[in-house]
Every structure is written in structure tokens, then in C-alpha cells.
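Whiteboard transcription, Tuesday session. T.W. wrote the C-alpha cells on the left side:
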């Protein structure tokens, strides 16, 4: 048998193998076209998800943890029935001083009047303001009896400025959740501190600054007068003292709300 005859007999087999290889090639292309979007999606997820997790861990998490821990500690103090009401109030005041930047907030609420005040006037105001804020915050938290406050997320405005969002959870079936926000910044020691609280869209420090500015305008910018007023409000926040009438520098009578009414006014604006 000649070599040419042998080659001619092998040609059909070669053609068959070539046909099979071509068919496999096109089938592989078809499979690749079907799987390509999924392979790309999986590859993107493997690359993006670790980065996203790292970003979430690096932004907002410390501030959120700080706020949630502070809320839990505050509730623990207010719900401690093993101590007297006075001791509970003192502990809550000390707790607020540890988590709120009181001096910063107090200076903010005075607005431009803070610049002309003496150190002694500012020290007295800071103390009265702290007592007043402690009474206000305790009153607001008491209103959420049977509810808890749960942090839901945060918005990083700057490296030193984070808004932590939260909602009230639980309570009576007819109680709607309350939207809250806590503005967290670093204090002079470099630690996280709360500089304002928002209740249903109303920032409390901003509200207090508007009220204090109005009060000081009516009383000749007398910070000592405002300090006495806040002390009176803090002491009588749960009472019903009558309104008092004061005379401004212009000689006009000014009706000043009672301590309880002054506290309720801010409470209504924040509700």
C-alpha cells in the first residue's frame, strides 16, 4: 500500500476531528457570552465589597458607637431605682457633662453676647446652663418611657463633624417613632462629644440660642439676669410657678415665662 493511499484513508478522520474542534470552539464562545456578565459581577463584588466594608468601618462607626453607648448609659442611670431621685439627678448631670461639650454649647447659645461677658459671668452661666440642660434632657428622656433609642446610621460632614441618626423603638402601639440626630465633634481633649441634639428636625441648641438672644434683647444684654432665669427654670421645671413681670431698660414691662413654661416652650418646639 502506498503512502498516498494511507493519507487518503486518514483524511475523513482528520476532517471529523476538525469539525469537532470547531464545534467546541463555537460552543465555548456561546457559554462565555452567557457567563461573562456574571463573572464580571462576581469579580466586581470581590473587589468592591472589602473596600466598601473598610470605608464603612472607617467613617461614622466610632461616633455611632459613642452615641449608642451614651444613650444606654443615660437610660441605665435614669432607670436605677436603687438610688434616691436626688442622687439619680446628680448622676445624670455628671453623665451629661461627660458626653456633652457644655462650655461649647453654652457659648454657642449666647451668640454675640458671649464676647462681651466676663470670665466670672461665663462661669456662672455655664453652671446654670448645665443644670438647665440636665433638667431638660431628663424630662425629654422621661417622655420616652417604655421606649429605647436605637442608632440607625450617620453622615460624616467632616473629619471632626458627624451627624448620628437614631429612632425611638417600642412604647405604646399608638406612639409613632421619633426621629433624632446627634451632632458629634471632638472636644478640647480630642474625645468625641455631643454638641447638639435634633428632635424631629429641630436642633435644640439652635432653638435655645434664638430664645436666649430674644431674652437678652429684652433685658439689656444682662447675662447675669439670664443666668438667674435658667437657674429658676431648672429648679422649677416640674412645677407650675406663675409668670413674673420684669421691666426692661426701655421701661416696658416684659412678661417672663415661669420656669416650667420656659422648659415646656423649648420642649414644644422640639416635639
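and on the right, the sequence the group agreed on:
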Amino acid at each position: 500500500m502506498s503512502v498516498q493511499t494511507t493519507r487518503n484513508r486518514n483524511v475523513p478522520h482528520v476532517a471529523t476531528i476538525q469539525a469537532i474542534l470547531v464545534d467546541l470552539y463555537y460552543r465555548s464562545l456561546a457559554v462565555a457570552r452567557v457567563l461573562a456578565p456574571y463573572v464580571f459581577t462576581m469579580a466586581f463584588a470581590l473587589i468592591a465589597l472589602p473596600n466598601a466594608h473598610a470605608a464603612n468601618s472607617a467613617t461614622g462607626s466610632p461616633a455611632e458607637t459613642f452615641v449608642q453607648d451614651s444613650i444606654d448609659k443615660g437610660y441605665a442611670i435614669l432607670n436605677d431605682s436603687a438610688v434616691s431621685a436626688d442622687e439619680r439627678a446628680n448622676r445624670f448631670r455628671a453623665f451629661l457633662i461627660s458626653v456633652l461639650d457644655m462650655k461649647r454649647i453654652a457659648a454657642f447659645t449666647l451668640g454675640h453676647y458671649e464676647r462681651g461677658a466676663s470670665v466670672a459671668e461665663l462661669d456662672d452661666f455655664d453652671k446654670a446652663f448645665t443644670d438647665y440642660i440636665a433638667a431638660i434632657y431628663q424630662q425629654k428622656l422621661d417622655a420616652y418611657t417604655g421606649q429605647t433609642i436605637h442608632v440607625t446610621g450617620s453622615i460624616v460632614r467632616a473629619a471632626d463633624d458627624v451627624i448620628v441618626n437614631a429612632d425611638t423603638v417600642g412604647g405604646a402601639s399608638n406612639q409613632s417613632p421619633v426621629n433624632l440626630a446627634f451632632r458629634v465633634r471632638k472636644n478640647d481633649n480630642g474625645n468625641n462629644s455631643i454638641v447638639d441634639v435634633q428632635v424631629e428636625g429641630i436642633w435644640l441648641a439652635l432653638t435655645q440660642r434664638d430664645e436666649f438672644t430674644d431674652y437678652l434683647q429684652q433685658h439689656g444684654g444682662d447675662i447675669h439676669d439670664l443666668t438667674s432665669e435658667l437657674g429658676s427654670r431648672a429648679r422649677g421645671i416640674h412645677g407650675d410657678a406663675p409668670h413674673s413681670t420684669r421691666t426692661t431698660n426701655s421701661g416696658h414691662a416684659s412678661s417672663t415665662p415661669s420656669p416650667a413654661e420656659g422648659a415646656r416652650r423649648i420642649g414644644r418646639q422640639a416635639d
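Someone added at the bottom: Residues 61-270 form a domain with the Nuclear Transport Factor 2; Chain: A, fold (CATH 3.10.450.710).
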